[in-house]
Amino acid sequence: MVEALLIIGVIVAVFVGFNIGGSSTGVSFGPAVGSGTLSKTTAAALMSVFALAGGWTVGRNVIDTMGGEIVPSSAFTLAASVGVLFFVGVALLISNTFGVPASTSMTAVGAIAGLGAATGTLNADVMLRIVGWWLVAPVVAFWICAVVGRYFYPYLDAAFAIDRSAGGVVEFDGARPRIAPGATGREVAGTVAVLLIACYMAFSAGASNVANAVAPLVGNGSVTASQGVLLAGAAIALGAFTIARRTLDTVGNDLTDLPLLAALIVEVVAASLITFLSAIGIPASLAVSATMSIVGLGWGRATRTTTLGGAVSDAVGGALGGDEADDQRQRPEVSVNALAAERSGAADGVPPMGEEHGDELLAEDLFDAGTTGRVVSFWIFTPTISFVCSYALFALAPV
């Protein structure tokens, strides 16, 4: 019976890791693949390596938290571990069904907290610390990217636009790669930046997500931490080489218009936040941080057309209305470079704050409030339902 439960637990852990690989690869390498910098196969290989590196190093802190601090290790019987992992798998299924990037980390913590509440072993101090960071991290991600989008993005776009030559960046001389003769210096630098940031994102994904697949099994001693990291890493790699091919094509399209530079900014902010939280042992969501970074950057870019007071008023209560709102919706949209060409008096080709008059960006193109609301509601719903179901299971059938 014990061996059968262990086999089931390993299968469920692999299922969770498989789905994590499918979703995290798209988040990490979607911009690089979409820009033509990497093939999907190369992206999957790099995801496998750097996610394992993140789990093997920083990710062990998150395993310790989820495997023995939210509830003591003694609460993770083999049957309880299988139950917790089952709820994580169900949450992944629900989020994939509705097309929402729900948080695996938050759902896993919800299931573990349900076990602790049902058995009277929940560490309230640890749980409050985790929830506190859950509230702070998305706000920090939003405002960092909002400031970048409002005050710095047009200048970054003008200074670091990544050119694309016809022949690509790298060619092979026999078995040795070399820079293609037609590649520009800016193109080479941009390609290197895309690769480095994507690998950094994969590292942070491994650091935060490995624990979601194996922490209960490590907590009850069925596998060691090293064995758990290797098991999760292999499952993530399997997902990266299979189902991630679809997420690589679609990542980032529903929330905002996300050009390559914007995607790189989002990845740096989100990956840095998650790496920091993983280092201090906080299980946090890469999807949540990345999504709020996207929303913040889009909101910041869209609000360049008005003053700061007007932007805040519009965000909290829709203060912009009447003829002015109609005028903004009717004005044509042009690119940053086209706008710069038309405004010879603008410094560095970027119009002063509040003088774009809506020509450059329209808020509805950069910030989809309806989609964002649906995503945020699922962030609350999935860990809540995971907690409730876990509590009901372990209260009615102690294992």
From TrEMBL:
InterPro entries: Phos_transporter. PANTHER family: PHOSPHATE TRANSPORTER. Keywords: Membrane, Phosphate transport, Transmembrane, Transmembrane helix, Transport. It holds the Pfam family PHO4. Potential transporter for phosphate. The chain crosses the membrane at residues 6-29, 41-58, 70-94, 106-124, 130-153, 188-208, 228-248, 260-282, 376-397. This is Phosphate transporter. Its main location: membrane. The lineage of its organism: Archaea, Methanobacteriati, Methanobacteriota, Stenosarchaea group, Halobacteria. One of its GO terms (biological process) is phosphate ion transport. It is a multi-pass membrane protein. It is found in: Membrane. One of its GO terms (cellular component) is membrane. Belongs to the inorganic phosphate transporter (PiT) (TC 2.A.20) family.
